[in-house]
Amino acid sequence: MMKNLFSVIALVASSWVMAAGPAVHLDKAPIDLKDKASLQNGARIFQNYCLGCHQMQYQRYVRTFRDLDIPEDVGMENLMFTGEKVGDHIKNNMATKDAEKWFGAAPPDLTNVARVRGPDWLYTYMRSFYADPSRPFGVNNEVFPMVGMPHVLQELQGTPRKTYETRLVDGESKQVYVGIKADGTGELSAEEYDRTVADLVNYLEYVGEPTKLESRELGVKVMVFLLIFFVLAYLLKKEYWKDVH
User: Fold this and answer.
1) Between vectors from CA 219 to CA 215 and to CA 222, what angle results, nearest 5°?
2) Which long-range contacts (CB under 8 A, 24 or more apart) does 218-223 make?
3) How far apart are CA 169 and CA 18, in angstroms?
4) What is the pLDDT of residues 162-221, one digit of tens each?
5) I need a surface site. Which of 67, 143, 232, 243 has the fewest CB within 10 A?
6) In contact, 202 and 42? CB cutoff 8 Å
7) What is the pTM assigned to this prediction?
8) Closest Cα to residue 208, out of 116, 106, 92?
9) How far is residue 53's CA from residue 51's CA, in Å, rounded to a whole number?
10) How far apart are CA 239 and CA 58, in angstroms?
11) 83: left (phi over 0), alpha (psi -120 to 50) or beta
12) What are the φ and ψ backbone dihedral angles of 174, each rounded to 5 degrees?
């Protein structure tokens, strides 16, 4: 419990120190924790593209497989690559010193990133990389300027670039920024890429609070119980006090 708390505090501190910048409109993430197909695909994307640098040291494989309806043998074959046991936490083998040397800072653990950043931030962030030759990894990000992270999904999206259009402004033709657009070299179309990012963020939202759906259902049951109890208590009170007056 304390480790989980420290992870949240570390992510909050990192947000304040590293992500200060101009406000950017955040797109609404299409979160649906009941969509098991989306969650399964999100887990696949994370394991194949994110786990090399980022860990989920407070989430176990076995819990993920059980919650996402992934048969254990299928999960071990397709989502576990370095001989881990199914009861292990989702970790990588990157040494912290090496990560600091390569990236300037160790990549944060992502167990609680959706709770700290919010799903809308993550959804917009993963769709806001753009080519920037001045940066060490050749990319920058509108949501997180000067980010020290490569665009790990670039082979899926293609090379994203800032695009401009010539428009008439105050009677003069000017180049106006209209957004980021991929160059078409990726494996996915723009719509498919957005759906892939949505699945990844959906999975991160689940990992941040695996019991969210159960907690909501339990909360509804408790409220129904209290309502019924209130009615019964009120009727009992009326019956008990009817002869007093």
Assistant:
1) 135
2) none
3) 35
4) 999 888 777 788 888 889 999 999 999 999 999 999 999 999 999 999 998 888 888 999
5) 243
6) yes
7) 0.81
8) 116
9) 5
10) 53
11) left
12) -135, 155
